[in-house]
Amino acid sequence: MNGGACIPNGFGGFTCQCPPGFSGQRCEDRDPCASQPCMNQGNCIRDNGGFRCVCPSGYSGSRCEIRDACQPNPCMNGGTCRPINGNGGYQCMCPSGFTGLRCETRDACIPNPCLNGGACIPNGFGGFTCQCPPGFSGQRCED
User: Fold this and answer.
1) Does the record carry Glycoprotein as a key word (predicted)?
2) Same domain, 60 and 20
3) Are 45 and 13 contained in the same domain?
């Protein structure tokens, strides 16, 4: 069957040489891993008549087709990466004092550099502006 070459074994039986992808006494069993269905260097394991893929670090999915955007961690300054939507996207959870898509920007408002109850407003470039309460002025509401 399936292109196998069966040769009499001299004892009234035969032995079949099966083509790649087939096995069994008469080449009747198809090897589900023969087509190398696992992607990204995933390891194919025969399982209950089918197969399953064991994925390398950084990949998931039934065929290792989904890249884990958090491997390696793209977040900087101790940020924690969270995969989102299973589509290769991610979100960085930044530690206190850092902002930005990858926690790349130091938040100049932590701790608050403004004096006398001034409100610190980060400018997005690592700098800040102080919004001073009535009666105070200066770059840091010091006057």
Assistant:
1) yes
2) yes
3) yes
